[in-house]
Specification:
By secondary structure, the chain is an all-alpha fold. It has helices at about 1-20, 20-30, 30-40, 55-60, 70-80, 90-100, 100-105, 125-130. The longest helix has 17 residues, at about 1-20.
């Protein structure tokens, strides 16, 4: 669990450098229940302005298995298992999903709970080839 929480924090750091506006938007949309989780696990995200990327939890836990078709997942896993282009490519891939859907998230004023729909099982069909 600690490793997964560290990966969520690392994903937040990736967003800090690649898209601070998206990071800020997601940070503003945190719900009360997410803030409660943050308070309960205060050591995870020391910066109160840090977005709570708990909606990415499943992505990282099962390495995108539910978000893409079987063939796409096999292609992605093959890339991840090589360790190239880097050992944290899965974090860049997660960021790429968010960046690809950025306009939809902001224009529709998605809350952190609604952002879950972006990565809902099967909802990423068609995104794989655009991202990779």
């Amino acid at each position: 669990m600690e490793k997964l929480m560290k990966e969520l924090k690392d994903l937040s750091t990736v967003m800090k450098y690649l898209d601070p506006a998206l990071k800020a938007y997601i940070g503003k949309t945190s719900s009360i229940s997410v803030r409660w989780f943050h308070l309960k696990h205060k050591c995870l995200f020391a910066d109160s302005n840090d977005p709570r990327l708990y909606f990415c939890f499943r992505w990282l836990l099962v390495q995108f298995k539910r978000e893409f078709s079987f063939d796409d997942v096999m292609r992605l896993w093959e890339i991840l298992w090589t360790g190239k282009p880097c050992k944290n490519f899965h974090l860049l891939f997660a960021y790429a999903i968010l960046e690809t859907e950025k306009n939809t998230l902001i224009e529709n004023r998605f809350s952190s709970t609604e952002i879950l729909r972006v990565g809902a099982p099967g909802s990423c069909s068609g995104l794989f080839d655009r991202i990779v």
